[in-house]
Amino acid sequence: MRRITRIATVGIASAALALSATACGGKSSSDSSSENGGKVAIAYDIGGRGDQSFNDAAYAGLVKAEKDLGVEGTEAEPTEGEGDPDKVQRLTELARAGNNPVIGVGFAYAPAIAEVAPKFPKTTFGLIDDTSKTAKNIANLVFNEEQGSYLAGVAAAKVTKTNTVGFIGGVETPLIKKFEAGYVQGVKDTKANVNVKVQYLTQPPDFGGFSKPDLGKAAAQGQLDAGADVIYAAAGLAGSGSIEATSKAGKWAIGVDSDQYNQKGLAAYKNAILTSVTKDVSGAVFNLIKSVEDGKPQSGEIRYGLEQNGVGLAASNPAYTKMTDVTAAVDKAKAAITAGTIKVKTAP
What we know:
39% helix, globular
């Protein structure tokens, strides 16, 4: 059984009632474990489940853990315009309900996890995409996004016919700039005269660039109008708007985080999704849950890169697999990165 909880910012007592109410018809949130395994929880990032990208990848890891390990999962959705106190409240209630681990999906959970983790020393907290907050009971699940993005840049440079490609970042943060840096480097190392147009949808503290498809669509249309024929968007849910615009223009889109060619919500545009830069967020979530179930909880930095297949480039689109010159160039670049002969930048 899985519960979805939306904890409003109405105080701890009311939040506890809301969490308990979601369990109606099943186990109460005060149960310490399910029949077959422990209780685990994931708290989603901006955009929530259904973003066809980052959050959905985390959800896939939860589903696998439920199936393979017999755990009982709880999902916690974000609220519009929430701040750190809201996240603190959410994580506190999830930990208090007996979930272990409690996983914050995204760097935005870093301050909240740093505040809540000391209060629940026997609970493991997973923090995805951030290493700034550390403790014995915090597992920092991080990825070499720049490496996968480099491969996307190689592919984009090989397929462009206009010598103009685009990059759209959801919010201009150090994390998303890793995607930009790797992509631009991959493009330029492959074909130096290709112009890379870069645009960010919002600037911190406005994180709406991760959740608004209309912004992604408008940004992609602007790049298409300027001659781009391949667009890579690292923008969460907003990236779906970019994919839609690119598809309707008959150009190539490059997905992110999940293999977006296979996402049901993007089925209408799948033929335009050349490839996707994947992050094994699902594997990281599953591995953390399993480590807790095994009594050997992960702690500290757990890094996933090309060498561990923690990042990569999807090959689901048959059109992509038939481009043997492109796939050969990507494979060559991957081998060079894992061998250390290509050093990928983490900042533009």
